[in-house]
Design brief:
alpha/beta, 15% strand, 9-stranded mixed β-sheet, 36% helix, 310 residues, TIM Barrel, binds S-adenosylmethionine
Amino acid sequence: MYVRVSENCNSHCFMCHFAGTSNALNISDEQYDKLLNHMKKKNYKMIRFTGGEPLLHKNIIEFIKKAKEIGVKASIITNGYLLPLYVDKLLKVGLDECIISLDGSCSEVHDSLRNFPGCFDNIIKGIKLLKEKDIIIRVNTVVSGKNISDICNIYDLLINLGVDQWSIIPVKYKENLWNEDSINYYREFVDKVKDSNDIKFLGYSKNFAGLSDEEIKDTFDNNSRLSIKDNCKVVDNVRFYIPDKDVLVPCNCVSHRLKELPFSITGDMEEVCEKIRLWLKENNCSCKCEPLNVYINDHPEIMDEDEILY
Ligand SMILES: C[S@@+](CC[C@H](N)C(=O)[O-])C[C@H]1O[C@@H](n2cnc3c(N)ncnc32)[C@H](O)[C@@H]1O
């Protein structure tokens, strides 16, 4: 269960809907308790807090505590700016996984893509603090023509920091940002990491542009990407709760594409979710899938493993 706990964000990422949003659309305590009851009833395994920036929600620590009390694992996706302030509190309430968004190997690249001076330095501080404790550290990297030249340096940095998992996501919801050099940087990266076991590449992150030469060429020539063809299984395993609309959607990508659904999404939360799930199974989703989601579709059994690989 992904939950967008706040639409507030302190970062101004060039590629994100929530860049600099200051309308405080925060999940209420009532909505959160209702969601946890639903999760308990349906035997969910994990909750993942996202946003906006989840560390901006004033009750985030309490939310994690409550989730742990019903026996689910807890994960957070953060831009990392506030991490040094929050590490102790997050660990004290038993956070199982911290996902940090990092798009560059140095402040010049990362902070400028995210229009967020000081963010890179705080991420590094935060990761070092987390590293002293028993928690899974994952990095999400959004890749495009703007930072693919830095991808090998990011790899070196993550290895040095001892990051456990890496998910690479080609940028979504943007025009084609690849350029004529992108494919060469990509090939250099694939060659560098092909035998790497020093970090767990999630899903198809090691080959995020494609598994065959044809697919890779299509990615860089036509801004195409790995996608799920038929009978999507991600929608059987993933849910995303949007408090602002009190809507539950199957898959973490659909939340940005609600307007494309050919029916109304008002009504009972579970019924609406089921309607969207069945529709997505029958109609190829036009979303730009993440390499991790394509992998979950091909290997749904990873959802049953104890290790968090989803
Ligand atoms: C919307 S953010 C919310 C959590 C938090 N504020 C953060 O920056 O990590 C969740 C994830 O989506 C990624 N993201 C944002 N815009 C994206 C885009 N256009 N394409 C792909 N991923 C994107 C972020 O890098 C982050 O890893």
